[in-house]
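step: validate -> pass
step: tokenize input -> pass
step: predict -> running
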Amino acid sequence: MLQNELEDYLHFLQIERGLAENTLNSYRRDLLHYTEYILKEKELSDWNKVTRHDILSFLYLLKDNGKSTATISRHISSIRSFHQFLIREQIVKQDASLHIEKPKKDRTLPDVLSQAEVTKLLEINDSSPLGLRTKAMFELLYATGLRVTEMITLKTDDLHLMMGFVQCFGKGSKERIVPLGNTAKHVLEDYLQHARPHLVKQQTTSTLFVNQHGRPLTRQGFWKILKKSSLEAGIRKNITPHTLRHSFATHLLENGADLRIVQEMLGHEDISTTQIYTHVTKTRLKDMYKAYHPRA
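step: predict -> pass
step: emit ->
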């Protein structure tokens, strides 16, 4: 059955390649959708009978359903990788996904906050345990450029405040070390001493950031906190969980940081992923020129 090979592949991604849970879930969603199409629409139950035309039909269906270029590209990557697995495991003789090209990506620039807007967001005067936690999370994200998923899975032992760095595990469980500035260090010390013990109470957990019940904070929980705080700060931009990460990278490059160093701190495997931020800085430069030059 088609599902058996799919489960084998997902097991391979989890055990052999050590993919992060979010990445694994993305593969699972895409390939379950694809497998269901092959089973129900094409009425096939053997991967050997799947052709390039079948895959293209599925991709055209995604397009007809209004899926974005980025979503279709992600499906193609998932399907290609899966069919290569089927070849390696000698389940099929030919790779039906061969020569299927990804559509040209619409290059969308991430929304970033200006340095003044970041300052507004970080000016949190709430000294309650939850207020100190919010300030610590925002300062940490802006100081390090961590992904939100990386931040909410941090353990207290991952913080090395005396040495001035944080140790995190990114995509594919790859470890990286990111330096911490003095402001972030002081705010995190304040949170650990005066807020976290009140939130954790009697519970035993090593998770760094917890909710009001002492349980690990979720990505959705963080997003709600960020949205609320940004509105209170008078910021009207489209805020996402990655906004502070994007702002961290953009502001570093605007102030002369080396692209390779930024790539390493962000945990990007390919420098082309980091280069998107050079486009952001050029766009911002043009906007500032138009706004302030008298003859622009």
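step: describe -> The chain has two domains: 2-88, 115-292.
step: cleanup -> pass
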